[in-house]
Design goal:
By secondary structure, this protein is of the alpha/beta class. The chain has one domain (12-268): TIM Barrel. Helices cover 36% and strands 10% of the residues. It has 10 helices and 7 strands. It has helices spanning 19-31, 41-46, 51-61, 69-73, 86-98, 119-125, 148-165, 182-190, 224-231, 236-242; strands at 12-14, 35-39, 66-67, 79-80, 131-135, 169-174, 195-197. A 5-stranded parallel sheet has the order 1-2-5-6-7. A two-stranded antiparallel ribbon has the order 3-4. The two termini are 31 Å apart.
């Protein structure tokens, strides 16, 4: 429309966590700020938790001794609870071997804030005009590890389902795990998307590609200064160099972090 967005930011929340309604919405109202919530419809159908939270909670519940249940589900040997590589190994195994989907049925825990809001709760959230909704696929897969038709289906069917259940659903996809490739971008466009959001932790280019728009994760920001540094376009080349490229690298189980355990790239972080 010819209006510059320089100096502007957008607030987004992936996975439609229940905590958004409790913690984020009051602040958005107080500051009169809009935000977009990206919804995974399989999780929203039952208010399901996400595998990475379930696995981490299981690991933390082991005060001592080997941690074996979660790793065993995906064919990994037990980890020591204090092993800092444990969650990285789990993430990479689920991404590389199972395309980002936990190989068991989704779980529901209605008394937690680390689950997805269900559709009834999302409808209630959508009554507040500060909230828009966006596409986050049906099942939260690592899209580049699926076939092209599967990628289109994951995006398009999620969009159509959200449109049928919620107000103000935008034609914008947040790529699960921040993972995408050229085929994913083509699939998103063919599924009707006008923008795609990544997790690359830096400012946009002077002439940004709307299908590869970078975002900065809240966990990557510790202070206002660190946020300003990441938004500084002059530092964009340094951040690209640090990330070893403009675009994410696919999860690869080779070479291993240690004998028998896989590696994970920075771009394969969760959500």
């Amino acid at each position: 429309r010819g209006i510059s967005t320089r100096g502007c930011v957008a607030i987004t929340f992936d996975d439609a966590y229940a905590g958004i309604a409790v913690h984020a919405l009051p602040i958005l109202r107080e500051l009169d700020l809009p935000a977009t919530v990206f919804v995974t419809s399989d999780h929203a159908a039952i208010g399901a938790t996400f595998w990475w939270d379930d696995v981490e909670l299981e690991r933390l519940a082991h005060a001592a001794g080997p941690w074996s249940v979660g790793p065993g589900v995906v064919g990994l040997p037990p980890f020591a609870v204090a092993d800092e590589s444990a969650m990285e190994g789990m993430r990479t195994r689920v991404l590389a071997r199972f395309a980002g989907r936990w190989p068991r049925a989704l779980a529901t825990k209605s008394d937690t804030l680390w689950r997805s809001l269900d559709f009834q709760e999302l409808s209630a959230l959508g009554k507040d005009d500060h909230i828009d909704f966006g596409v986050h696929t049906l099942s939260h897969p690592a899209l580049p590890l699926l076939s092209y038709p599967e990628q289109v289906s994951e995006i398009r069917n999620n969009f159509q389902l959200l449109r049928s259940r919620l107000p103000r659903v935008q034609q914008v996809v947040a790529y699960p795990y921040g993972l995408y490739d050229d085929t994913t971008v083509r699939a998103a466009i063919d599924a009707g998307m006008v923008a795609g959001l990544t997790m690359e932790g830096r400012a946009t280019a002077d002439q940004p590609d709307t299908m590869r728009a970078p975002r900065i994760g809240g966990a990557d920001v510790r202070t206002p200064h660190s946020l300003a540094r990441r938004l500084n376009r002059a530092l964009r080349p340094a951040l690209i160099l640090r990330n070893r490229g403009r675009h994410p690298r696919m999860p690869d189980e080779h070479p291993p972090m240690r004998p028998g355990l896989p590696n994970v790239t920075p771009a394969a972080r969760l959500r």
